[in-house]
Amino acid sequence: MGEHGQSLWRGRQCIRFRIATLVCLVACPAAALARVQPPHSLPLSVVLLDLAQRTGTEIVSVEPGVAAVRVPRADAIGSVAQQLRRVLHGTGFRAIRQSDRSYRIVRAATLPPRPRRYAPPPPLKGGDVIVTASKQRISLERYPGTITSIAPEGAVLGPAAARDMTVIASATPVLQTTALGSGRDKIFIRGIADSSFNGATQSATSYYFGDVQLGYSTPEPALALVDMQSVEVMEGPQGTLYGAGAIGGVVRMVPNPVDLNRSSGMLSTAFGVTEHGAPSDAFATALNLPNAAGTFGVRVVGYRSRDGGYIDALSPHRSDINGVNRLGGRFAMRFNPGDGWNIDASILAQRIAADDGQYADRLSGMLARDSRIAQPYRNSLALGRMIVTRRWNSGLELLSASSISHYAAQDTFDASRRPPAPLAEYRDHRSNRLITQEVRLSRSLDRGASWVIGIAELNNRDAQDRSFGPVGAPSDIIAVTNVSSSQSAFGELTEPLFANLFVTAGLRATLSHVDGTPSVKPRAGDVVRGRQTHRADPTLALAWMVAPHMSLYARYQSGFRTGGLAVARGIGRVAEFDTDDIGMGEVGMRMIRHGATGLSLSTALSYARWTDIQADLVDRSGQPYTANIGDARVFAAEADADWVPASGLSLKAAILYTDNRVSGTIADTAPRDDRRLPDTPPFAAHGGVAYDWAIGRDRLRASATVEYVGRSVLGVGNYLDIAQGHYAWSSVELGWQRRAVDLSLTFENVTDTHASRFAFGNPFSLANREQITPLRPRTVRIGAGVRF
Questions:
Q1: Cβ contacts of residue 414 below 8 Å, gap of 6+?
Q2: H/E element holding 44?
Q3: Which end of the chain is more exposed for a tag (fewer CB within 10 A), N or C?
Q4: What is the DSSP string of 212-251?
Q5: DSSP at 91
Q6: If DSSP states are collapsed to H, E and C, what string results for 728-748?
């Protein structure tokens, strides 16, 4: 269907024709397709689309069967109303005039419904996917880069209320994660990983909720992926379009928008049982309500989940200590005043609370540890955003995105020495407030050209408050506050050089500044004035359509992270850390399946140079600090295949190979084979098979997946070169669906594999090198859902 998109609203067939922006799709009964048609006739939907494009008129229909009627091609004589009368003569349909430039097609015997305004069409599958993360309307077939789109509801197992990005990462080996706990994990893309620990550095991966940034120097927010349309992963530095911080790539979570066409909702619940552990449960709901005129609507989402624990503490004995609770919701509004304007406003809030740390130690067993006090943690996220868009029939689009978010986290660690030493604790409290504003203008043209220009401003305040001492009465120790601001202007242009060759060029100019202070409540004399950073991040790319559904591409892009103030080695000191810089080149191939069966395939090779790497580390006494640890080169090769040999049967496979080497004072202390970036296994793979079939009114499905994660190390240097990973994990799902009701039975970790995902849980006992974060033991879940 090309890059202009298509619209299909389920449960109610609807065609919308808008010049140069939308293409119609109407479901046609098989019997109608089998009729013998008169010569030189076309489907009525096609003729109406042609008329709309020629005359600049909007033509809308909610009537089924428009595509099943065939008529001669319309001539261009007379007014739009006269042409419509000739086209519709004898078809059983008639045109109702809505305005000077708008008509509605209805059956001749029906009264015209009240005018409605429809939401923009969602991205499509296959070659018609529009890469909205590019901030232009570029079709996936000619996008010059590696991007993965994941449907959260079909990509991974488990209830939606307990599903976040660290869970969905298992659907693709391109994503690697830490496992410190929900809401304090990090996600790395294609081997660009800085550190296993949290601290003052800006995230190597940028997280977005739609068009607004979710965090700055915070972990992955662990937002529950309830009522989500898709998750888009843009691989490699994205400095031109996304600015500072996106050195590894961008993870963009796209929620389902408010639907102005119809009311709908869903309820889902699940219950799980884990071997050697406590039960789990989850509940989620979503409700969409438009007004009768189709100009205003709201969407409400709520969820709650409990992941039962499966790790025991030995002294004193406590069972299943690592349970995690999640509670959250979203509220969204959409107002469509007409004339191409659209206003979206939403708020979200989520809270995660864990009873204890998520780690064990090998000396006590794979599912137990010897810790003297509880180590709970909690974190919360709140976001408010407003998106205002204006679309013109010429393909021009104006977008303004404003947001404010707040992230807070509190961790407690057991800092006790061996008995008879008294009990001690370490507390770390983080608070992050982020304000962003972006305004951009873009245009997508019929001949394949597209461009975007924009300006953006960001202000972030990150405060870290720490205390250390006796349980219940720790004393404050050195704290750090960073205030970062940046202003930038960016632009990117995609232009066809020839019919099938497209070139993309772009540039972002950024002025950023960071001020720091060794206090949570800054005083004027304490402020450490940071250096200003002037940056220019270019993009240059080529995309060549070598066949109708196959393309080759090459791309170069750069990125950076600003410096700041952080805790230094030893208690009571702070120090500055410098800006780091990355440049990456990649080449790739993409082949997209068109039709019900066939093969989709993508491959890519990339090479990156990363200098002055920022990393949050832990010293041998358990205290955190931040430093520039050296330089790295990263080579990656990846492939992703999705084959549908027959209707209902799907086979998937994905692999990632990375080779990286770190050079620097800290890295050189480790054995040569361990001088690599943390949490980046040389090889990772994912495979799956699924079959879906119908029996009468019922639909049945069965699927199985297997994931392999190779060996990696916890960090850089001889203190942190602790092995982790090197395991395989499998799951199976069975499902039944009848109309709006869905039941599922899932088996996770079918073989009950015992392995260490992550070799860290408590910085004060890290020196014994025996910490592990075990896989969740074999778990069986029963789920039920209904849509209405």
A1: 371, 372, 373, 375, 423, 424, 425, 762, 764, 765
A2: helix 44-55
A3: C
A4: EE--SSS-------TTEEEEEEEES--HHHH-TT-SSEEE
A5: T
A6: EEEEEEEEEEECCEEEEEEEE
The rounded distance, in Å, linking the Cα atoms of 499 and 447 is 9
Amino acid, single-letter form, for residue 728? A
Q: What is the pTM of this model?
A: 0.82
Beta bridge partners of 271: 281, 782
**Residue keyed to tokens 């407003």:** 386
The listed range with the strongest mean pLDDT (50-59, 470-479, 621-630, 765-774) is: 765-774
What residues does each domain of the chain span?
15-107, 128-253, 264-528+538-787
Region 568-582 average pLDDT: 76
CA distance 342 to 397: 11
SS3 of 751-774: CCCCCEEECCCCHHHHHHCCEEEE
Query: Could you tell me the CATH superfamily of domain 264-528+538-787?
Result: TonB-dependent receptor, beta-barrel domain (2.40.170.20)
Listed in sequence order, the residues at least 6 apart from 116 whose beta carbon sits closer than 8 Å to its beta carbon are 60, 260, 261, 293, 294
Architecture in CATH for domain 15-107: 3-Layer(bab) Sandwich (3.55)
CB atoms < 10 A from the CB of 756, how many? 23
pLDDT digits (tens, 9 = 90+) for 244-269: 888 999 999 999 999 998 999 999 99
Please state whether the peptide bond connecting residue 645 to the residue before it is cis, i.e. omega within 30 degrees of 0.
no
- Dihedral angle over CA of 664, 668, 673, 676, nearest 10: -30
Residue 187: which of 172, 164, 173, 169 has the closest Cα? 169
Contact 96, 63 (CB under 8 A): no
Q: Specify whether the CB–CB gap between 578 and 563 falls below 8 A.
A: yes
**Cα separation of 659 and 745, whole Å?**
39
Confidence band of 100 (pLDDT split at 50, 70, 90):
low
- Would you give the distance in Å from CA 647 to the centre of its chain? 29
Q: Which CATH number fits domain 128-253: 2.170.130.10, 3.40.1080.10, 3.30.365.10, 3.40.390.10?
A: 2.170.130.10
Beta bridge partners of 131: 138
At residue 492, the pLDDT reads 96
The answer, yes or no, to whether residue 551 has pLDDT greater than 80, is yes
